[in-house]
Design brief:
7-stranded mixed beta sheet, about 900 residues, 31 helices, alpha+beta, 7-stranded antiparallel beta sheet, about 50% helix
Length: about 900
């Protein structure tokens, strides 16, 4: 069983280390993780051995409090929700701390002026009021001078009594923390000041003004007041800054609408979001936020999904489409069936993932935790030792005491404890805002070490559904006429390849005609009559079975097969009229993502269950380093294991059920957000945008977070390594450096603030663009090649096979016939180009091709001659 607790009373890394150690040692507890930043603890335990009450009791015995956090029935701004309660408590704490700080400053200012007015006169020549001279100046007024300081410091001690309560309670439980250091240091200052008052009073009674004069300079009340006030100032700034680290979660929570319009019995009723049930019909109008995850029943709308996926372009939604809660209806009207509500919605799960990742501990934090656990006892020992040494070398007690106090208050375990969690929290929040959900801080740390990325093909590199890529048709048809025949035939088929043809035709504005005598032939294709003619649509076996010659397109079909595409043949009566190439096309982002990964020095492997010919065709398009084809799901996991045995740090990217074993085996499993629930469950990182480019962003974010953590840890170690010897007086004998306790308190206060502010720099993280330097001579992603061919049939004169394809290139920089000749000559040198004619006036070149040639290859040929190829467009020669 796993349970989350809210822990109270923690003030530094030593506190969190103590709580974690106490709970970890309980029988039946498998693992306990304490997050100082969030004041939470996650405990995995066997409920048959240890109970919730015994865990709470163990924490209480250590001097802290623990309250279990119950699962909320719904996500949203409910009056009694635990999230809102926690937020209100945080605001109340900050408000109290601000008031305490202001009151402390109000008493500290006169205390400092009274204690140091003589220095202000010497340094700044500030005038001293007459009453100061008559009441407080001189040894004869020593008792008034000292007692007034005690009166002024007393309210400061009372206002900041929390440090003494927590510090001494922790000391009694033998688990000293940062509050202990502050309490001991401040108490020593005040007690020594009270002792000095007695000395001054006795000396005045005996007329010993010299003793009075000496001791009025060693009261240390102002040190105690300054220490407490500066510590409170640092805590206030730290708390304010820490609040900014959770802004990403807060913004996500604010996206959840408070109410929803529900249609029940034909009547629209506005209900609290907590009252919406699965199966309800929810109405969403323009400008409203979608309150639940569901399916569109009726209506159309343009939905802004940027809050969830990070995509800036709105998506059109219509009946049958799924919608996600917290997305915005920009225009239109929708009726939605509620499929997921409350804590089951995508938004709620995102928030839960971010919170869990923030609460988890990265391996790099272990060293800081180990040091924090013994840090405070070591500091107290150093303070006592330093004090004894200075007394032994002959320094007065006041000098030795100030050394001990400086050591106590300059030491900062907080900087160590905050170094990792603040960076993790800001980093995971930044990732969530970009559509990258990191499930644990361990995954975020491991990702920066990745040197091999394994990509599944279908749905990860490719779109996951077939699309039309090539259209070849007889020269006695126009493109529209041929597509109308193809769409009319295929619209009656249920095959996915037929759906691709129909979708492409509709995108071109083609309307299907009614087909009579329609027949679906299993494993072959379809047949039917259209306008009195018999038509066939199917694979090569169907054409051969019907005795239809396909020699006109044999080379084209072979080339399509080499590119991993499936050829669909179309025939009229007994002769071929066209050929359509269909393939699971590469996503536009895949090519640039692979290039970016390779530019970062990461090896890219494609792993797929598809046949080798198709896999190698995709490999050529995206330029991966290696392809492993025809593998079963368990073999994918074995391939990951094999790479790891070679010393590789492997990230697996996939989206299907068959990828789950490999995702689990990999050092970092990355699931495409549009993939299956099993894949997402098995992964360490989830990409909401379904784009491979986010794999690059996730790795770059990991590197940025780890760099930030190392900066924080370096600062924390450097600060304590330098500060403690300085406070102990190590440099006093050599350089005369002695640290005043007041300056030590200021340094300690702002060390934690510096760590938090450095972590907040991650809020400005932006993915770094990577130079696109990899050559690719394949057909541009997303384009559809079109060409005509001569029909060889009894009704037409015999012609040789002649595939002609024309493209028009727009060119800048041509000014004369020499330029024209240079461009034509360069283009004709390109393999597959049969002719090129340049029109200077139009700044265009008409290029005739005998086979498909990549646009980039044509543009490169022109650019190498010193001209600028602007764009290439297809033109059909009919």
């Amino acid at each position: 069983m796993q349970q989350r607790y809210r822990v109270t009373g923690m003030s530094c890394a030593a506190c969190s280390a103590k709580v974690e150690r106490v709970v970890d040692h309980l029988p039946g507890v498998e693992k306990a993780q304490v997050n100082l930043l969030a004041n939470t603890m996650v405990v995995s335990y066997d409920e048959t051995v240890v109970t919730e009450e015994s865990i709470i009791e163990a924490v209480a015995h250590a001097g802290y409090g623990a309250v279990p956090v119950r699962e909320e029935a719904e996500l949203g701004p409910l009056p009694l929700s635990q999230r809102e309660k926690a937020s209100a408590e945080e605001e109340k704490t900050v408000r109290k701390m601000r008031n305490r700080l202001l009151l402390s400053i109000g008493f500290l200012v006169p205390l400092m002026y009274l204690a140091m007015h003589h220095m202000l006169w010497e340094w700044f020549r500030l005038p001293i009021p007459p009453f100061m001279t008559s009441w407080f100046h001189g040894p004869e007024n020593g008792l008034t001078f000292a007692f007034t300081q005690l009166l002024l410091v007393t309210p400061i001690l009372y206002l900041n009594r929390k440090y003494f309560q927590n510090g001494f309670r922790a000391l009694i439980h033998l688990s000293p923390n940062m509050d202990t250091l502050i309490a001991v240091g401040s108490s020593a200052s005040v007690l020594y000041g009270i002792y000095t008052i007695y000395v001054i009073g006795i000396a005045l009674g005996h007329g010993d003004l010299a003793t009075v004069s000496d001791h009025t300079m060693d009261l240390y009340f102002e040190s105690a007041g300054t220490i407490l006030t500066l510590i409170t100032l640092g805590k206030y700034l730290e708390t304010r800054s820490r609040g900014k680290t959770t802004e990403a979660i807060t913004k996500l929570m604010d996206l959840a609408p408070k109410t929803a319009t529900v249609l029940r019995d034909g009547i629209e009723t506005e209900l609290p979001i907590s009252s919406v049930q699965v199966g309800d019909t929810v109405v969403v109008r323009t400008g409203q936020s979608i309150p639940v995850d569901g399916t569109v029943l009726s209506g159309t709308a343009s939905v802004d999904q940027s809050a969830i996926t990070g995509e800036s372009i709105p998506v059109e939604k219509q009946a049958g489409d799924s919608v996600t809660g917290a997305t915005m209806n920009q225009s239109g009207y929708l009726q939605i069936r509620a499929d997921k509500v409350g804590k089951d919605t995508t938004l709620s799960q995102i928030i839960q993932l971010v919170e869990e990742a923030s609460a988890s501990k990265a391996p790099i934090a272990k060293l800081a935790d180990q040091i924090s656990g013994i840090f405070v006892p070591i500091v107290i020992s150093i303070a006592i030792l330093a004090m004894i040494v200075w007394l032994m070398v002959g320094q007065p007690f006041s000098f030795a005491l100030s050394i001990a106090i400086a050591v106590l208050v300059i030491s900062c375990p907080c900087a160590l404890g905050l170094a990792t969690p603040v960076a993790i929290m800001v980093g995971t929040g930044k990732g969530a805002a970009s559509g990258i959900l990191v499930k644990s801080s361990e995954a975020l740390e491991t990702a920066h070490k990745i040197d091999t990325v394994v990509l599944d093909k279908t749905g990860t590199i490719t779109e996951g559904k077939p699309q039309v890529t090539d259209v070849y048709y007889g020269d006695c048809f126009s493109l529209e006429e041929f597509l109308q025949i193809a769409v009319s035939l295929e619209i009656g088929s249920e095959h996915p390849l037929a759906d691709a043809v129909v979708a492409y035709g509709k995108a071109q504005g083609i309307q299907a005609e009614p087909v009579s005598f329609f027949q679906s032939i299993a494993g072959r294709g379809v047949a039917g009559q259209l306008q009195g003619k018999q038509y066939l649509a199917g694979n090569l076996q169907m054409m051969q079975q019907r005795g239809i010659s396909v020699s006109q397109c044999a080379q084209t079909a072979d080339r399509l097969a080499d590119q991993g595409k499936t050829a669909l043949y179309f025939a009229e009566d007994d002769h071929l009229i066209g050929l359509i190439g269909v393939a699971d096309t590469v996503k536009p982002s895949s090519v640039s993502a692979v290039r970016s990964l390779k530019a970062m020095g990461i090896s890219v492997v494609m792993l797929t269950g598809d046949n080798r010919r198709t896999a190698e065709a995709i490999c050529r398009q995206v330029a991966v380093d290696r392809v492993v084809a025809e593998v079963l799901p368990q073999e994918k996991e074995q391939e990951i294991r094999k790479l790891q045995s070679e010393g590789k740090r492997v990230a697996m990217v996939g989206d299907g059920i068959n990828d789950a074993p490999a995702l689990t085996r990999a050092d970092v499993g990355i699931a495409i957000g549009a993939g299956t629930d099993i894949a997402i469950e098995s992964a360490d990182i989830v990409l909401m945008k379904n784009s491979l480019q986010d794999v690059v962003t996730a790795i770059q974010l990991s590197k940025a977070v780890l760099r930030n953590i190392k900066e924080n840890l370096f600062w924390a170690f450097f600060y304590n390594t330098c500060g403690i010897p300085l406070a102990a007086g190590v440099f006093y004998g050599l350089l005369g450096w002695k640290l005043n306790p007041m300056f030590a308190a200021a340094a300690m206060s702002f060390s934690s603030v510096c760590v938090v502010l450095n972590a907040l720099r991650l809020k400005f993280f932006r993915p770094k663009p990577v130079e696109d330097s990899v050559e690719n001579d394949t057909q541009p992603v997303g384009s559809v090649a079109q060409a005509t061919f001569s029909i060889a049939n009894p009704k037409a004169s015999e012609k040789k096979e002649c595939i002609t394809m024309k493209k028009v290139m727009t060119i800048e920089g041509m000014s004369c016939n020499h330029c024209k000749m240079a461009v034509e000559r360069a283009l004709k040198k390109v393999s597959g180009v049969t002719d090129a004619i340049v029109d200077l006036a139009e700044k265009q070149a008409v290029i005739t091709l005998s086979e498909a040639v990549a646009d980039q290859a044509l543009m490169d040929a022109v650019n190498e001659e010193g001209f600028t190829a602007v764009r290439v467009e297809s033109a059909c020669d009919r």
